[in-house]
Write a sequence for this structure.
């Protein structure tokens, strides 16, 4: 899923300091799963903002709405009848959400309430870790199912580097050296020879370096399936 | 027992403090309550295993939020006592009312009264 962290209350309050009637739009997708932009989080933010503004003697009217997803125009269209009733909208979806909203409702101002961070998963309750860099050419089968692009600080295709010490990356003592894990996993499964061949230079054309990407599925466009 | 405790308190009964939500506490403050406290069972004696422990964490979250807003976190508190400790219940009520009296009215209500 896409993982995000909520911006601080002070930062969000500052964004809408001159607004008196706003909508907070949550999303039932990834940000609900990572507990940052679902119904509960939207309501908590609304209550916290109302308390803060009341304390300053400057009440704010806040409505909340949670969209099925903010990354599909059909769901974004679901607020067309109310979106004009507000001075601004705070989106608690990932960075995609406020952009889809901004594109559909050109006269409205949308603020991002979260910082979108990475593609990852929860390793335990309350802890999310990066697992995918969205490079566009998945090759994790070559590395025991562990991605060195997303999880090695240098995105090395041939590792580990000299900065690996006791399974820890030199960049941060809390970061595991994924190449150490890859080698250990291959040794455990008796397939260390898989790593002997030098992996060629990775083409980054499919990654973000090739500019904004687009995925086109002709059969879906034609409505055949 | 017929113990007396301050009449300033409005009691809201829940089956277990595990039912208490962050929003219940925030909404109470938002609606002008000068303070809110949760009276749960003794730790380790929850009939539902961890309801009171979860309530404590929710209280801690609300305290953190209030601090961020600039409202005294002491306005929200978690207490633990058993249903057999009537005297302690009255004592906690007096303690909390005393604390809130010292802090004064909620800054939210003060602003609204001034307006």
């Amino acid at each position: 899923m896409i993982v995000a962290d909520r911006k601080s209350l002070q930062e969000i309050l500052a964004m809408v300091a001159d607004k008196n009637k706003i909508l907070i739009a949550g999303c039932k997708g990834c940000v609900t799963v990572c507990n940052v932009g679902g119904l509960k989080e939207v309501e908590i933010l609304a209550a916290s903002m109302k308390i803060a503004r009341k304390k300053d003697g400057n009440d704010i009217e806040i409505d909340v709405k949670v969209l099925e997803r903010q990354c599909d125009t059909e769901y974004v269209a679901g607020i067309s009848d109310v979106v004009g009733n507000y001075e601004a909208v705070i989106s608690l979806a990932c960075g995609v959400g406020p952009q889809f909203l901004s594109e559909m409702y050109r006269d409205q101002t949308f603020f991002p309430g979260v910082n979108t961070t990475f593609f990852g998963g929860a390793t335990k309750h309350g802890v999310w870790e990066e697992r995918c860099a969205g490079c566009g050419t998945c090759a994790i089968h070559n590395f025991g199912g562990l991605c060195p692009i997303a999880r090695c600080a240098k995105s090395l295709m041939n590792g580990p580097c000299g900065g690996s010490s006791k399974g820890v990356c030199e960049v941060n003592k809390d970061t595991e050296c994924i190449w150490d894990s890859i080698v250990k996993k291959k040794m455990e499964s008796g397939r260390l020879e898989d790593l002997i061949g030098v992996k060629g230079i990775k083409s980054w054309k499919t990654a973000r370096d090739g500019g904004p990407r687009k995925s086109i599925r002709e059969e879906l466009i034609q409505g055949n399936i | 027992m017929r113990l007396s405790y301050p009449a300033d308190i409005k009691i809201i009964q829940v089956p277990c403090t595990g039912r208490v939500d962050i929003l219940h506490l925030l909404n109470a403050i938002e609606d002008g309550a000068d303070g809110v406290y949760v009276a749960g069972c003794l730790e380790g004696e929850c009939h539902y295993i961890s309801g009171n422990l979860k309530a404590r964490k929710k209280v801690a979250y609300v305290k953190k939020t209030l601090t961020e807003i600039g409202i005294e976190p002491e306005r929200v508190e978690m207490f633990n006592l058993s249903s057999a400790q009537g005297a302690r219940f009255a004592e906690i009520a007096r303690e909390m009312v005393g604390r809130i009296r010292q802090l004064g009215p909620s800054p939210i209500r003060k602003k609204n009264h001034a307006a």
